[in-house]
Amino acid sequence: MSKVIETAGKTVDEAISAALEELGADIDEVEVTVLEEGSRGLFGIGGRQARVQVRLKPDPAGAGLRFLEDVFGQMAVDVDVETLEDENSVMYRISGKDSGIVIGRRGETLDALQYLTSLVVNKHSNRYVRVTMDVENYREKREETLVRLARRLADKVVRFRRSISLEPMNPYERRIIHSALQNNEFVETYSVGEDPNRKVVIALKQARSGR
Protein backbone atom coordinates (compact mmCIF):
# COMPACT_ATOMS: atom_id res chain seq x y z
CA MET A 1 0.00 0.00 0.00
CA SER A 2 1.31 3.45 -0.91
CA LYS A 3 2.34 5.68 1.97
CA VAL A 4 0.07 8.72 2.50
CA ILE A 5 0.78 11.73 4.70
CA GLU A 6 -0.88 15.07 5.37
CA THR A 7 1.14 18.24 5.88
CA ALA A 8 0.41 21.92 6.39
CA GLY A 9 2.15 25.17 5.54
CA LYS A 10 1.57 28.84 4.94
CA THR A 11 1.03 28.03 1.26
CA VAL A 12 0.22 24.92 -0.75
CA ASP A 13 3.77 24.87 -2.13
CA GLU A 14 5.21 25.04 1.36
CA ALA A 15 2.98 22.17 2.53
CA ILE A 16 4.01 20.07 -0.48
CA SER A 17 7.69 20.78 0.15
CA ALA A 18 7.30 19.63 3.76
CA ALA A 19 5.67 16.40 2.57
CA LEU A 20 8.37 15.71 0.00
CA GLU A 21 11.08 16.21 2.61
CA GLU A 22 9.34 13.84 5.04
CA LEU A 23 8.86 11.19 2.35
CA GLY A 24 12.29 11.66 0.84
CA ALA A 25 10.69 11.86 -2.60
CA ASP A 26 10.63 14.09 -5.66
CA ILE A 27 7.47 15.75 -6.93
CA ASP A 28 7.16 13.34 -9.87
CA GLU A 29 7.10 10.41 -7.43
CA VAL A 30 3.97 11.53 -5.62
CA GLU A 31 0.30 12.36 -6.10
CA VAL A 32 -0.90 15.54 -4.38
CA THR A 33 -4.42 16.34 -3.19
CA VAL A 34 -5.02 19.88 -1.90
CA LEU A 35 -7.27 19.64 1.14
CA GLU A 36 -7.33 23.33 1.94
CA GLU A 37 -5.90 26.26 0.02
CA GLY A 38 -5.31 28.31 3.17
CA SER A 39 -5.84 32.00 3.68
CA ARG A 40 -3.95 34.94 5.20
CA GLY A 41 -6.93 36.25 7.15
CA LEU A 42 -7.68 39.89 7.79
CA PHE A 43 -4.66 41.87 8.96
CA GLY A 44 -2.97 38.56 9.67
CA ILE A 45 -5.75 37.47 12.03
CA GLY A 46 -7.85 34.34 11.50
CA GLY A 47 -5.69 32.95 8.73
CA ARG A 48 -5.71 29.24 7.93
CA GLN A 49 -2.80 27.11 6.85
CA ALA A 50 -2.83 25.26 3.56
CA ARG A 51 -3.19 21.48 3.95
CA VAL A 52 -2.30 18.79 1.44
CA GLN A 53 -2.44 15.03 1.24
CA VAL A 54 0.57 13.48 -0.50
CA ARG A 55 0.67 9.87 -1.63
CA LEU A 56 3.70 8.02 -2.95
CA LYS A 57 2.95 6.64 -6.38
CA PRO A 58 2.98 2.84 -6.62
CA ASP A 59 6.51 1.55 -7.22
CA PRO A 60 6.15 -2.17 -8.01
CA ALA A 61 9.76 -2.63 -9.13
CA GLY A 62 11.07 -0.86 -6.05
CA ALA A 63 8.89 -3.01 -3.79
CA GLY A 64 10.31 -6.13 -5.41
CA LEU A 65 13.86 -4.86 -5.01
CA ARG A 66 13.35 -4.08 -1.32
CA PHE A 67 11.89 -7.56 -0.82
CA LEU A 68 14.89 -9.20 -2.47
CA GLU A 69 17.37 -7.10 -0.52
CA ASP A 70 15.64 -8.12 2.71
CA VAL A 71 15.66 -11.80 1.73
CA PHE A 72 19.33 -11.72 0.74
CA GLY A 73 20.14 -9.96 3.98
CA GLN A 74 18.39 -12.73 5.93
CA MET A 75 20.27 -15.33 3.87
CA ALA A 76 23.56 -13.50 4.48
CA VAL A 77 24.50 -13.75 0.81
CA ASP A 78 26.70 -11.18 -0.92
CA VAL A 79 25.02 -10.30 -4.22
CA ASP A 80 24.07 -7.23 -6.24
CA VAL A 81 20.67 -6.73 -7.85
CA GLU A 82 20.11 -4.74 -11.05
CA THR A 83 16.55 -3.74 -11.93
CA LEU A 84 15.39 -3.43 -15.54
CA GLU A 85 11.80 -2.41 -16.14
CA ASP A 86 9.38 -1.26 -18.78
CA GLU A 87 5.65 -0.58 -18.73
CA ASN A 88 4.52 -4.19 -18.23
CA SER A 89 7.53 -6.11 -16.95
CA VAL A 90 10.44 -5.98 -14.57
CA MET A 91 13.59 -8.07 -14.57
CA TYR A 92 16.02 -8.50 -11.70
CA ARG A 93 19.58 -9.44 -12.63
CA ILE A 94 21.56 -10.88 -9.73
CA SER A 95 25.33 -11.13 -9.60
CA GLY A 96 28.04 -11.58 -7.00
CA LYS A 97 30.22 -14.15 -5.30
CA ASP A 98 27.28 -15.87 -3.58
CA SER A 99 25.07 -15.98 -6.68
CA GLY A 100 25.28 -19.78 -6.86
CA ILE A 101 23.35 -20.00 -3.58
CA VAL A 102 20.55 -17.95 -5.12
CA ILE A 103 20.24 -20.37 -8.05
CA GLY A 104 19.89 -23.47 -5.90
CA ARG A 105 19.50 -27.05 -7.13
CA ARG A 106 18.37 -27.00 -10.78
CA GLY A 107 17.28 -23.39 -10.29
CA GLU A 108 14.71 -24.24 -7.62
CA THR A 109 15.72 -21.40 -5.28
CA LEU A 110 15.74 -18.93 -8.16
CA ASP A 111 12.28 -20.04 -9.29
CA ALA A 112 10.89 -19.72 -5.76
CA LEU A 113 12.35 -16.23 -5.36
CA GLN A 114 10.94 -15.19 -8.72
CA TYR A 115 7.47 -16.41 -7.75
CA LEU A 116 7.51 -14.66 -4.37
CA THR A 117 8.89 -11.45 -5.87
CA SER A 118 6.14 -11.52 -8.49
CA LEU A 119 3.55 -11.63 -5.69
CA VAL A 120 5.16 -8.62 -4.00
CA VAL A 121 5.47 -6.61 -7.21
CA ASN A 122 1.89 -7.21 -8.28
CA LYS A 123 0.59 -6.41 -4.81
CA HIS A 124 1.97 -2.89 -5.34
CA SER A 125 0.75 -2.53 -8.94
CA ASN A 126 -2.58 -1.55 -10.44
CA ARG A 127 -1.99 -3.92 -13.38
CA TYR A 128 -0.28 -7.25 -13.90
CA VAL A 129 3.50 -6.95 -14.15
CA ARG A 130 5.53 -9.87 -15.51
CA VAL A 131 8.50 -10.57 -13.25
CA THR A 132 11.60 -12.44 -14.35
CA MET A 133 14.82 -13.07 -12.48
CA ASP A 134 18.19 -14.29 -13.63
CA VAL A 135 21.55 -14.97 -12.01
CA GLU A 136 24.75 -14.60 -14.04
CA ASN A 137 22.77 -15.50 -17.21
CA TYR A 138 21.83 -18.85 -15.66
CA ARG A 139 18.50 -19.09 -17.45
CA GLU A 140 19.98 -18.45 -20.88
CA LYS A 141 22.73 -21.00 -20.28
CA ARG A 142 20.24 -23.50 -18.85
CA GLU A 143 17.94 -23.07 -21.84
CA GLU A 144 20.79 -23.71 -24.26
CA THR A 145 21.74 -26.84 -22.30
CA LEU A 146 18.15 -28.14 -22.30
CA VAL A 147 17.69 -27.52 -26.02
CA ARG A 148 20.86 -29.47 -26.78
CA LEU A 149 19.73 -32.25 -24.43
CA ALA A 150 16.30 -32.43 -26.04
CA ARG A 151 17.72 -32.75 -29.54
CA ARG A 152 20.30 -35.32 -28.50
CA LEU A 153 17.72 -37.47 -26.75
CA ALA A 154 15.31 -37.13 -29.67
CA ASP A 155 17.96 -38.58 -31.96
CA LYS A 156 18.44 -41.40 -29.48
CA VAL A 157 14.71 -42.12 -29.40
CA VAL A 158 14.64 -42.35 -33.19
CA ARG A 159 17.76 -44.52 -33.32
CA PHE A 160 16.68 -47.05 -30.68
CA ARG A 161 12.90 -46.64 -31.22
CA ARG A 162 12.34 -46.39 -27.49
CA SER A 163 10.77 -43.58 -25.42
CA ILE A 164 12.95 -41.67 -22.97
CA SER A 165 11.80 -40.03 -19.72
CA LEU A 166 13.76 -37.01 -18.56
CA GLU A 167 14.41 -36.07 -14.95
CA PRO A 168 11.67 -34.13 -13.13
CA MET A 169 11.61 -30.47 -14.20
CA ASN A 170 9.72 -27.34 -13.29
CA PRO A 171 7.11 -25.95 -15.72
CA TYR A 172 9.55 -23.43 -17.21
CA GLU A 173 12.09 -26.11 -18.13
CA ARG A 174 9.44 -28.52 -19.42
CA ARG A 175 8.22 -25.80 -21.78
CA ILE A 176 11.75 -25.46 -23.16
CA ILE A 177 11.88 -29.19 -23.96
CA HIS A 178 8.43 -29.16 -25.56
CA SER A 179 9.28 -26.07 -27.61
CA ALA A 180 12.62 -27.45 -28.77
CA LEU A 181 10.97 -30.55 -30.27
CA GLN A 182 7.54 -29.29 -31.28
CA ASN A 183 8.46 -29.23 -34.98
CA ASN A 184 10.42 -32.49 -34.94
CA GLU A 185 9.18 -34.79 -37.69
CA PHE A 186 9.77 -38.04 -35.84
CA VAL A 187 9.16 -37.49 -32.13
CA GLU A 188 6.71 -35.79 -29.84
CA THR A 189 6.76 -34.87 -26.18
CA TYR A 190 4.28 -35.10 -23.33
CA SER A 191 4.43 -34.74 -19.57
CA VAL A 192 3.61 -37.33 -16.93
CA GLY A 193 3.39 -37.30 -13.15
CA GLU A 194 2.55 -34.59 -10.66
CA ASP A 195 4.64 -31.61 -9.58
CA PRO A 196 7.29 -31.47 -8.27
CA ASN A 197 8.05 -34.84 -9.90
CA ARG A 198 6.39 -34.13 -13.23
CA LYS A 199 8.67 -35.03 -16.14
CA VAL A 200 8.80 -34.90 -19.94
CA VAL A 201 8.68 -38.03 -22.08
CA ILE A 202 10.12 -38.04 -25.60
CA ALA A 203 8.48 -40.68 -27.77
CA LEU A 204 8.20 -41.75 -31.40
CA LYS A 205 5.08 -40.26 -32.92
CA GLN A 206 3.78 -43.58 -34.21
CA ALA A 207 4.50 -45.23 -30.87
CA ARG A 208 2.55 -42.56 -29.03
CA SER A 209 -0.40 -42.59 -31.44
CA GLY A 210 -0.69 -46.36 -31.21
CA ARG A 211 -1.38 -46.35 -27.47
Give me the strand/helix succession.
Answer: EHEEHEEHHEHEHEEH
User: Which regions contain 5 or more consecutive residues with pLDDT less than 50?
Assistant: none
Widest β-sheet, arrangement of strands? 1-3-2
Biggest β-sheet description: 3 strands, antiparallel
Describe this structure in a few short sentences.
The chain has helices at residues 12-23, 60-75, 99-103, 108-123, 138-160, 171-181, 205-209; strands at 4-9, 30-36, 50-56, 80-85, 89-95, 130-135, 164-165, 187-192, 199-204. With 211 residues, the chain is α+β, with helices and mostly antiparallel strands. A three-stranded antiparallel beta sheet has the order 1-3-2, with helices on one face.
Write the layout of secondary structure elements.
Layout: E1 4-9, H1 12-23, E2 30-36, E3 50-56, H2 60-75, E4 80-85, E5 89-95, H3 99-103, H4 108-123, E6 130-135, H5 138-160, E7 164-165, H6 171-181, E8 187-192, E9 199-204, H7 205-209
Parallel strand pairs: 5-6
Antiparallel strand pairs: 1-3, 2-3, 4-5, 7-9, 8-9
Helix pairs in contact: 2-4, 5-6
Folded structure, characterized:
It is a single chain. This protein is α+β, with helices and mostly antiparallel strands and 211 residues long. It folds into three domains: 4-56, no CATH class; 60-136, K homology (KH) domain (GMP Synthetase, Chain A, domain 3, 2-Layer Sandwich); 140-209, R3H-like domain (Ribosomal Protein S8, Chain: A, domain 1). Helices cover 42% and strands 25% of the residues. It contains seven helices and nine strands, in the order βαββαββααβαβαββα. It has helices spanning 12-23, 60-75, 99-103, 108-123, 138-160, 171-181, 205-209; strands at 4-9, 30-36, 50-56, 80-85, 89-95, 130-135, 164-165, 187-192, 199-204. A three-stranded antiparallel sheet has the order 1-3-2, with helices on one face. Helix 5 (138-160) crosses helix 6. The longest helix is centred in the C-terminal third of the chain and has 23 residues, at 138-160.
